Amino acid sequence: MGCSRRIISHLKARPFNSSLSSIRDESFLCQWYSRSSIASASGHRHHHGHNQPHEAQRPSNAGFSPKTASFFSFRPSARWIATEPAANHASTSTSAVNNAVLEIINPNDCIEVFVDGHSVKIPKGMTVFQACEAAGVDIPRFCYHPRLSIAGNCRMCLVEVEKTPKPVASCAMPAMPGMKIKTDTPMVLKAREGVMEFLLANHPLDCPICDQGGECDLQDQSMAFGSDRGRFIETKRTVLDKNLGPLVKTVMTRCIQCTRCVRFASEIAGIQDLGVLGRGGSEEIGTYVERAMASELSGNVIDICPVGALTSKPFAFTARSWELKSTESIDVSDAVGANITINSRGPEVMRILPRLSEEVNEEWLSDKARFCYDGLKRQRLSEPMIRNAKGRLEPASWYDALKAVASVIAKSSPDQMAGIAGKVADAESMMALKDLLNKLGCENLRCEGDGLRPTADIRSDYLMNTTIYGLEKADVCLLIGTQLRNEAPLVNTRLRKAVRNNGAKVASIGPAVDLTYKHTHLGTGPETLMQVAEGQHPFFSVLAKAKNPVVIVGAGIFERADREAVMAAVQKIVEKATVVKEDWNGFNVLLLNASHAAGLDLGLVPGVGVSTNWKESVKFLYLLGADDTPLNDIPEDTFVVYQGHHGDHSVYRANVILPGATYTEKEGTYANTEGRVQQTLPAVPIIGDARDDWKILRAVSEVAKVKLPYDTISALRARMLAISPNLFRVDELEPSSRWVPDSKPAAPGKVDASPFKSTIENFYMTNSICRASKIMAQCTAAFSGSKG
């Protein structure tokens, strides 16, 4: 229908205080060195049954499953309310069926229809299917999906409309004023039974060995609407399976030709790899040319497939859906913060699925976020280690490891210390790292990958102010030094939606890439940027005339030596083209890492007196999960402490290793690239003798005689509240500042002639978890060079 949709959830933000707190009666270090006391303190996390949700776990989104996608979607003139209507609410309509509530935003733009004798007011332009859903009547469907175009080819959604001779496909029939719709007449039930019989005629009886078993639409709807017997006795047809790559497993004999995957590939992912071949009994879905499905969003076809034709290849034959425990969490593979559900069995993460979030990721998930889970159990650091005199790492006790760190701290001066927070560090651990080093007198703190950005005083200076959801309203967009498809695939889908629905014009300055939608490549470097800033480029007039202009700056800009001059040019464009208005802020910085926004909120930036050549004199370097920081240029006698969860790049240079927990094993706070604060929850127990990251830093502080003033996560978050109050407001967005970001220094200097480079060379290998993943290694081998 070409319109934006928004689902208003009735779920409130979960309280910020945590149930995973330390023992309050004993000293922190007493519990630390005693494994038994640690186990007793966190026993409620390890000993609950598989089917019992974690006590801190939020309730699931009502009515939504990634497999069935049974949720409601309407035009902008209406929105779904999942709670009882407020008293005397003039703009809400409540049906008599299932207490469904539809809030009419524009009462003058609605019509009245009758569903099973009940009056329902709906906005103009709705289909009969949506009118039935608004009335609370569940209509069976296979081909219909609210985020895809209407195909109308499964015929399972048949209903009876008065004065029509035959049942009609409700998903493709527009609702008309006064229309009388019947959904449970004998004719409708018989028609659905007949459609189901035809669908099952050639469907194999694979349910016992099908990975879709237990969450299959065909199973559920055949039980509810099908017959108890079949009349088909001929041989069933068979279809050759297709090779779509290392992620999607195909059993095309099970396919019912609903074409959801074809429409997703062409409309959402922006690739033309899938299509319908043949007609009639020879019709099948496949690739025009034998090749893998080269998309960073290919795994979503698994979720939208209503049968077992497309399933997860890594997950095949590993578990049944009813065996898994579900935990709501947040993805940390990039700065988008997609909402996910972690399915685990015992101590192992079995799979990761998307969770509905209209403001962030809708119901989609990138392949990296979905399939990197096997890296959570490979190359893990499970016990403290100390490098001996021969240069080899040896296992050690926590006491010895902490003592070794404290002894070096005592010998180092504050100006010889430094701390770096890694890509997936949570806000709690970054707060503890900042407090620890500040108590030692050190101001040399930074987030991995932020260059040498001088200040973080203005939030709108480093966030996506338009918001991810707001990008759909853009009519002109300028991308500067960013590969949106690789850096943030889910943000790229929003911009693609703006291009498809609103005809938005997109231009890019940087490496020439395939963004999956029509755009203009203006140039590769600062020279083109300066032409636009001076108004000498034709695109400047297009940007200046736009109603909702957007400028997106890639975080890789801040790694350049001429970043100040580049940002001065960007600010000139923002000012001259009026990108920031009274009711619109189109200036955006696209961050790359999950920890970056929260780190800048907490002030993890170098102090004023910190030298730009700090690596030459550093003697004590604390790496909080920082695996992508080059360490070749630090002195050989520098004492490096690595605190993290994987044996990655930095481990080879570390003198002491302190094993931490992954995001699936702890409760942590993250802020995404738009500044939205979200939290992860523990889905599996911590591996080996590892600990929560903030607890490790708290223990280091006590041994080093600079004890931090918090023993529980609640007390730590109270400290965070004092530093950055916005990190306390979970799932909320603060209104962005209307002012132009103050990024222009007094003397910006000249821009470098070198072109903007690609920030991400390999989409599947961006952090330590992905690099440890066998699935991501297979994707790298299969898709290397296939995406521009």
From TrEMBL:
<dbReference type="InterPro" id="IPR036010">
    <property type="entry name" value="2Fe-2S_ferredoxin-like_sf"/>
</dbReference>
<dbReference type="InterPro" id="IPR015405">
    <property type="entry name" value="NDUFS1-like_C"/>
</dbReference>
<keyword id="KW-0520">NAD</keyword>
<dbReference type="InterPro" id="IPR006656">
    <property type="entry name" value="Mopterin_OxRdtase"/>
</dbReference>
<dbReference type="GO" id="GO:0042773">
    <property type="term" value="P:ATP synthesis coupled electron transport"/>
</dbReference>
<feature type="domain" description="4Fe-4S Mo/W bis-MGD-type">
    <location>
        <begin position="324"/>
        <end position="380"/>
    </location>
</feature>
<dbReference type="InterPro" id="IPR006963">
    <property type="entry name" value="Mopterin_OxRdtase_4Fe-4S_dom"/>
</dbReference>
<comment type="similarity">
    <text>Belongs to the complex I 75 kDa subunit family.</text>
</comment>
<keyword id="KW-0479">Metal-binding</keyword>
<dbReference type="InterPro" id="IPR050123">
    <property type="entry name" value="Prok_molybdopt-oxidoreductase"/>
</dbReference>
<dbReference type="InterPro" id="IPR054351">
    <property type="entry name" value="NADH_UbQ_OxRdtase_ferredoxin"/>
</dbReference>
<protein>
    <recommendedName>
        <fullName>NADH dehydrogenase [ubiquinone] iron-sulfur protein 1, mitochondrial</fullName>
    </recommendedName>
</protein>
<dbReference type="Pfam" id="PF10588">
    <property type="entry name" value="NADH-G_4Fe-4S_3"/>
</dbReference>
<dbReference type="GO" id="GO:0051539">
    <property type="term" value="F:4 iron, 4 sulfur cluster binding"/>
</dbReference>
<dbReference type="Pfam" id="PF22151">
    <property type="entry name" value="Fer4_NDSU1"/>
</dbReference>
<dbReference type="GO" id="GO:0008137">
    <property type="term" value="F:NADH dehydrogenase (ubiquinone) activity"/>
</dbReference>
<feature type="domain" description="2Fe-2S ferredoxin-type">
    <location>
        <begin position="109"/>
        <end position="187"/>
    </location>
</feature>
<dbReference type="InterPro" id="IPR000283">
    <property type="entry name" value="NADH_UbQ_OxRdtase_75kDa_su_CS"/>
</dbReference>
<dbReference type="Pfam" id="PF09326">
    <property type="entry name" value="NADH_dhqG_C"/>
</dbReference>
<dbReference type="GO" id="GO:0016020">
    <property type="term" value="C:membrane"/>
</dbReference>
<dbReference type="Pfam" id="PF22117">
    <property type="entry name" value="Fer4_Nqo3"/>
</dbReference>
<keyword id="KW-0004">4Fe-4S</keyword>
<dbReference type="GO" id="GO:0046872">
    <property type="term" value="F:metal ion binding"/>
</dbReference>
<keyword id="KW-0411">Iron-sulfur</keyword>
<keyword id="KW-1278">Translocase</keyword>
<feature type="region of interest" description="Disordered">
    <location>
        <begin position="41"/>
        <end position="62"/>
    </location>
</feature>
<dbReference type="InterPro" id="IPR010228">
    <property type="entry name" value="NADH_UbQ_OxRdtase_Gsu"/>
</dbReference>
<dbReference type="Pfam" id="PF00384">
    <property type="entry name" value="Molybdopterin"/>
</dbReference>
<dbReference type="InterPro" id="IPR001041">
    <property type="entry name" value="2Fe-2S_ferredoxin-type"/>
</dbReference>
<feature type="domain" description="4Fe-4S His(Cys)3-ligated-type">
    <location>
        <begin position="187"/>
        <end position="226"/>
    </location>
</feature>
<dbReference type="GO" id="GO:0016651">
    <property type="term" value="F:oxidoreductase activity, acting on NAD(P)H"/>
</dbReference>
<keyword id="KW-0408">Iron</keyword>
<dbReference type="Pfam" id="PF13510">
    <property type="entry name" value="Fer2_4"/>
</dbReference>
<dbReference type="InterPro" id="IPR019574">
    <property type="entry name" value="NADH_UbQ_OxRdtase_Gsu_4Fe4S-bd"/>
</dbReference>
